[in-house]
Design brief:
Oligomer: single chain
Radius of gyration: 48 Å
Mean pLDDT: 89
Structural class: mainly beta
Low-confidence stretches: 5-10, 12-36
Shape: elongated
Strand content: 25-35%
Number of helices: 3
């Protein structure tokens, strides 16, 4: 009996002892969830974040925490004092745009402005209704009128050429500007306004230099054209403009003498400073002029006398062609070339003085001057014979005599 009681007590002690050992081993590290894990966390100083929260990642190589909520300093973003402590930028406040009903525009596009307080949209492309102007049906929807002119940047990158935007919708009267988009307009393009039959009046602003070939060809209803003294070339611009009654040049004789391309310009319609060119009876070319342009004074049917200063070196082709009343011509000593047909059909010309510096006389220079009797040459006979005279320079002239400083030469 005593032996059985001793065995029972010994079993109870063993049971309690084993239970205590298990309890001790389960106590482990209170900072871990795994009773067998002896891992120590090492938290990064760098913040990680998503759209709503931030935290520090564990930098230890064997860390198995994947749940962000269990990581160091996990918390929602706080923008109370501006950007969040983790560095995430404070989001912009929600803004409701209120778009104006009126249109704003520039040269190429239109849009509606936002009228809401605090709106900071500066890029026009982000504004309501932004679009390129459309003129298919007349004025643009934004109210911008259909353009009159179209511009093309010249090769120099600093100036423009101008032409009609839509030839079918040209107004009756136009003023062609000399400025566009902060740069000069210097050229009226070739055929720029060809067949614009609605045009009746054209004013070209001062600053434009070149009027292109056939620029106003067959604009049959133009009656008035104003050309500034900045123009240096016209290039047969007004062919077929049968309705023109006046071409008003705002420069003087000196600047007129340097314009090229005057061929086919009706001199009987030209006014220089409001004096009709064809009705002039005497022209004195100002000193400083270096050439007399082709066709500059052709068909001036009332012109009787011309004085050409020493500064002129070339009397160009047809300069005084078909001036039937021209009798008295004084040619300055600087002239070296007398161009093709320069005095052709000056049927009243009886005598002329030619300076010794002349080196060439072109064909028909004095053709059909059938009253020509005397040519005074201010040089020797040898110098006269050395002048390059094209065949026909004196075609159908009178029986003139050439008076040189050392004797006379009869017409061949």
């Amino acid at each position: 009996m005593k032996k059985k009681l001793f065995i029972a007590l010994l079993s109870l002690v063993c049971t309690l002892t084993c239970t205590g050992f298990v309890a001790c081993s389960n106590g482990g590290d209170s900072k871990t969830d795994n009773p067998t894990d002896s891992h120590t966390h090492s938290w990064s100083a760098v913040w990680e974040s998503d759209q709503t929260h931030h935290w520090h990642e564990c930098a230890a190589n064997d860390c198995t925490i994947t749940d962000n909520t269990q990581k160091d300093s996990y918390a929602a973003h706080d923008f109370t004092n501006g950007n969040c402590v983790c560095g995430k930028v404070k989001p912009a406040e929600v803004h409701n745009h209120i778009w104006s009903q009126s249109w704003e525009n520039n040269e190429t596009h239109h849009w509606h402005e936002c009228t809401a307080s605090g709106c900071n949209i500066a890029d026009n492309t982000q504004k309501d209704g932004y679009a390129a102007h459309g003129f298919e049906n007349g004025d643009c929807v934004c109210g911008k009128p259909r353009p009159v002119f179209s511009y093309r940047l010249n090769n120099d990158g600093n100036s423009y050429s101008v032409s009609a935007y839509d030839k079918e919708y040209m107004p009756e009267e136009i003023v062609i500007p000399s400025q566009y988009n902060g740069k000069r307009v210097t050229i009226i393009s070739d055929k720029a306004f060809e067949n614009c039959v609605s045009l009746t009046s054209v004013t070209i602003s001062n600053g434009i230099n070149f009027i292109g070939e056939n620029a106003f060809k067959d604009c049959s209803n133009i009656t008035s054209v104003t050309i500034p003294d900045s123009v240096v070339s016209i290039f047969s611009a007004f062919i077929g403009c049968s309705g023109i009654t006046g071409i008003y040049y705002t420069g003087d004789i000196a600047s007129w003498c340097h314009i090229s391309g005057l061929i086919n310009l009706a001199t009987d319609k030209v006014y220089i400073n409001n004096i009709k060119l064809q009705e002039m009876t005497a022209i004195e070319i100002p000193d400083g002029v270096t050439l007399i342009a082709k066709d500059a004074f052709s068909a001036c049917v009332f012109l009787e006398s011309v004085t050409i200063p020493d500064s002129v070196t070339s009397i160009n082709d047809f300069a005084f062609w078909a001036c039937p009343n021209l009798k008295d011509v004084e040619i300055g000593n600087g002239v070296k070339r007398i161009g093709w047909g320069a005095f052709c059909y000056c049927t009243s010309l009886t005598s002329i003085t030619i300076p010794e510096n002349v080196t060439s006389i072109n064909s028909n220079a004095f053709g059909y001057c059938n009253q020509l009797e005397s040519i005074t040459f201010n040089g020797t006979k040898e110098q006269w014979n050395n002048i390059d005279k094209e065949t026909g320079w004196d075609k159908n002239t009178g029986g003139y005599t050439i008076h040189c400083t050392d004797g006379d030469i009869a017409k061949n």
